[in-house]
Amino acid sequence: MFGALPGVPCIRLHNPVLAYETGDDFLAPFHRAAEGKLEPFILVVEGSIPNEKNKQEGYWATFGTDALSGQPILTTDWIDRLVPHAWAVVAAGTCATYGGIHAMEGNPTGAMGLPDYLGWQWKSAAGIPIVCIPGCPSQPDNMTETLLYLLHQSVGRAPMIPLDEALRPTWLFGDTLHEGCDRGGYYEQAEFAEEYGSRQCIVKLGCWGPVVQCNVGKRGWINGLGGCPNVGGICIGCTMPGFPDKFMPFMNQPPGSLLSSRAVSTYGRAIHALRRFTQASLNKEPGWRHR
Question: The pTM is what?
Fold first, then answer.
């Protein structure tokens, strides 16, 4: 990616999907990074971190094979070796940030997010906290925009990346999904969908948008298109640390919305009626416009 992004230093990308190298050749830069021979680098971790100490034998997750022992290298060992040398560490996706589906109560792996594994107060050698980009999956533009910010910061063209208490970039996750939802106006007018396929607000169908910090309602999924509620899908809170346990059972109306939807009904319906009256007047030309 040499010179492709204006104002950004030349960067080398090591990714298992995009790499030309395979096997030991692909693992070589990771070994160099673990030895401190590839600095500076940004480590991006995807997927939840298992607890490798909650069983007597075996392992949950590995990455590559040790050349001397011939045994698989634990994912947790890679993290332990790489993070001391990383300029910044990014957790990509809800599994890597907060554990996600794999961290549901009762799971056998003891899965957790990177902040739980390293500690929520952890900082890189450059003084940068773990940067979390939640989402199941991460919204693509959120991912590239955050990496671009860090690259600008690495060359002194941006201040310290601003993060909220859940380590999410504040400019991406500062608002709720509801605040940018295409259906927000229907909520204000107390027009709630009773079945899927309706264009009205879907909070009664189980949407958690009013309390979930997510920008997919404004940004869409790809090239500004899509986004869960924009296409009729309820928000199930995948960008939140409490996902999924605190949002289940899915498709049930959130408890908090019962009171708010009832409260808005009287006001919303009255305002809607007054707006219709005004609209009817505005849909007619002034009386002096005639031949």
Answer: 0.88
